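Reminder to self: tokens first, then the designed residues, so the page reads top to bottom the way the pipeline ran.
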């Protein structure tokens, strides 16, 4: 069952695993990728890929939560 964690600062250490994912070399080396935007998040969530996490703003959380 999915759960949510509120993060109030971009410096929160729980975000550390996501900081370098935009660097494609680092992401590829870890076998990970990142998607951005509600449309792509929807597509990812219905795909066969394992989803590690969804990080979104509080404003978007109401739209994303039902998809989880």
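Designed residues (68 positions):
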């Amino acid at each position: 069952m999915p759960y949510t964690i509120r993060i109030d600062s971009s410096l929160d250490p729980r975000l550390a695993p996501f900081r370098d994912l935009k660097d494609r070399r680092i992401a590829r080396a870890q076998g990970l990728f990142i998607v951005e935007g509600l449309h792509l998040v929807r597509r990812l969530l219905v795909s066969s890929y394992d989803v590690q996490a969804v990080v979104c703003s509080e404003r978007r959380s109401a739209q994303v939560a039902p998809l989880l």
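The mean pLDDT is 85.
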